[in-house]
Amino acid sequence: MGHILKMKPVFKEMIWGGHKLRDVYGYDIPSDHTGEAWAISAHKNGNCTIENSEYAGTTLAQLFDEHRELFGNIEGNEFPLLVKIIDANDNLSVQVHPDDAYAKKYENSLGKTECWYVLQADENTKMVMGHHAKTKEEFVKAIEEDDYDHLLNSFAISEGDFFYIPSGTLHAICSGSLIYEAQQSSDITYRVYDYHRKDKDGNERQLHVKQSIDVTRVPANVDQNKEFVKAELENGTKTTMIESEFFAVDRYQLTGKNTIVNDKPFQLVSVIEGSGIIGDIEVKKGDHFIICSDQKETIFNGNMAVMIATL
Known about the structure:
The chain is mainly beta. It has helices at 20-25, 60-66, 100-107, 136-144, 148-151, 209-215, and strands at residues 4-8, 10-18, 34-40, 42-43, 46-47, 49-50, 81-88, 94-96, 114-121, 126-131, 152-156, 162-165, 171-173, 177-184, 190-193, 229-233, 236-243, 248-261, 266-278, 281-284, 288-292, 297-310. The strands form 5 sheets. Strands 1, 6, 16, 17, 18, 19, 20, 21 and 22 form a 9-stranded antiparallel beta sheet that branches. A hairpin with a 2-residue loop joins strand 19 and strand 20 (281-284).
């Protein structure tokens, strides 16, 4: 048997966070303003601990450094991907992430391309993705005039929607969203607009307007793939949500016993609905695992929805 490693999430309190991470998944969150569960992460700002196997108590970053053979002996100084669950009780800032080149030059970090799968959305919940400026000058003018009503491209979202957000895309998750996010392992966010809201000490959060102008793509490309390839399994379906240069994400809707092959350096597994057994581990909604490269195929048995992110 190979390794199927259960992760202990790291929680982040945010000005916009809520308590759905407790209400929906039963997580022991630090407060009713918890915005993010870093569910599978080796990033220094949220390094998950392994809960089972001979590596129990080890952080993912340490395991990646010391046992690269468990991850297909991939190259690189840091674990490349990060999976989060995000509870937006209020609007997140309007923000943008740099690409690898800009992030390496100015932040000594990976860039951040990400994707979102909408787990829940309250009625009339919106999302911001992209903008309406045709030139950089138009973009800067709208920022200088605080004219975000006309600048931002916003639209309604529903449970089950999926969005791919390349670096350089202006975006914001809005109030009422519960989101699964798979991304490059980066914590670089440039805030361009934060609704002039103040923290408990009366201060507005720091903005990064120059960097945002530097890295935002103008004009924006907001076309999204709405046709997802679906494959029938022995007991369920597999939907390919995205295959990009940075990661691939599939959604599995399982109704019984299925053998899922692992032909990647690793599989990042998130149970988003239901319960069952993965390998010989009992699992439930809100559990997250890494299937290592020494586990070539895994039996998933149960009624559950699972997201799997890979390179």
